[in-house]
Amino acid sequence: MKLISVIIPVKDRITELKRTLDTVLNQSYENIEVIVAENNSKFPEEIEELIKSEYGENVHYLKVHPCKNANIARNAGANASRGEYVAFLDSDDEWESDYLASSLTHLTECDVDFVYSSAIINDSVSLKTVTARKFLAKEDPVNYLFGKNRGWAQSSSFFMTKDAFLKVSWDESLGRNQDLDYFIRCCDSLKVACMTDAKTTINWVLGEKRTIDFHSMLVFFARYTKRMNVVSKIRFFLIYFRLAKSIGDFKDFSQFLMVSFGLNKNNK
């Protein structure tokens, strides 16, 4: 039985982390390595103590210094891993008990390097299934994410070979859109397959404070604007308009619009 390494970046969220770890250790696939990578928590010693006292040798705690964002923690954890396969999971999300076994089977049967899958969104009020799908003929992964018939991809449903990770690492400069950027670059460089079953639960906390990372938005848009069709560009702007509206901050969003329209003009 080949070893699967599970990489979990964590920033505080001790209660959620415990729930997440329990779903990992409850996997039907038994040969796993669990690495919790520290991502600039306020009280990292509390997380380390939780892991030592409740999980012992079943979970490895990796101190990452300095660590400015989750991508740095993900890369550090995956680079330190010993498994032939790597699975990423956010510290507040959950897997069904057969997630790893199903992902490995799908990756092997499809003879690919990377698998992404559907998920269930839990916003504390209701549950909603978001469906991942296969690419349409000649479909760009950018337009898969933002186009008219857009699909789904999120870090907690990314499963890949270790060799594939060594070819495509996470962009440590991004504080937002990092999972979308990683998905696009994996699709550009690797053989990928979609698992339509929803065996991942993404937990969204209503009322949780969120910010707009203006720099990351611009980096992402500049990187992929030439590949976006009209629908994708409109949807990209709408997503961030709604985010700005939800937190009552239109200043950075207005600046983003001004700069992004300049980028569009220069790229024509």
CATH class of the largest domain: Alpha Beta
CATH topology of the largest domain: Spore Coat Polysaccharide Biosynthesis Protein SpsA, Chain A
- Please write the string of helix (H) and strand (E) elements: EHEHEHEEHEEHEHHEHHH
**Helix-strand makeup class:** alpha/beta
Q: How far is it from the N-terminal to the C-terminal residue, by CA?
A: 52 Å
Low-confidence region ranges: none
**Share in helix:** 40-55%
DSSP summary: helix tally: 10
| Sheet of most strands | 9 strands, mixed
Mean pLDDT score: 90
Rg, alpha carbons: 18 Å
Strand content: 15-25%
- The total strand number stands at 9
Q: In the residues, how many domains can be counted?
A: 2
CATH architecture of the largest domain: Alpha-Beta Complex
The CATH superfamily name of the largest domain is Spore Coat Polysaccharide Biosynthesis Protein SpsA, Chain A
**Shape type:** globular
